[in-house]
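Researcher: Structure for this, please.
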Amino acid sequence: MTAAPAGEEPDPPEGDPPEHEDAPHRAGHELSGLRERKKQRTRLALIDAALELFLAQGYEATTIDEIVAAVEVSQRTFFRYFATKEDVVTSFLAEHDEVLEDALAARPPEERPFTALFESLRVVLRTIAGSDPADSERFRRVRQVIEATPTLISAQMARYKAAESKLADEIARREGVDPLADLRPRIVVAFYSSATRVAFEDCARQDIWDPETVAARVEEAVALVERTMRDWV
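Model: Predicted structure, token format:
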């Protein structure tokens, strides 16, 4: 189809309803999209304000009142997006868990579990490394806040446990075993999680926060895991 000249709409495809009949549907779709973008902007504004305050004065010393005041919204608005102050930090990383779970479900069925897990992790690392500068900065700040806050380190461990349970269920499904009776899916996932956690913690210990560098370091850890398994086990 030839593009319409600037300022003109292309003719509707044959069989489509006339423009005036489709207008309410299009307007509703655009309004829905506008609302979602506004919600996302508000959520990110709350995350950014919270991270700035956490780094400036400490996580424990920062109140929800201070966060909402920085964004000029109400507490009621805050609780539409986050259940707790802790959730402001952990929910950002939980999005990466969802990417990992989706990537694992999409891996070839013949791929061995450990390989499938690390190939799925590479999808997450590419997502982090390829994110826009604002998201990269959020990732850096989130990691800094977590590493400086024992309460959040504990919350991270709980998040890891929940994510591991879902990954183990998926590995069990792929392998056709009962996740309650067969320990192997949980063992493989536990080993995978330990390896990635060591890599991320090593980056924090060396004060490495840039997402691309972190991704590269975790990739290196993946290769080291394979060599260690071959040489030490």
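Researcher: Any notable elements?
Model: The mean pLDDT is 83. Residues 16 and 22 are 9 Å apart (CA to CA).
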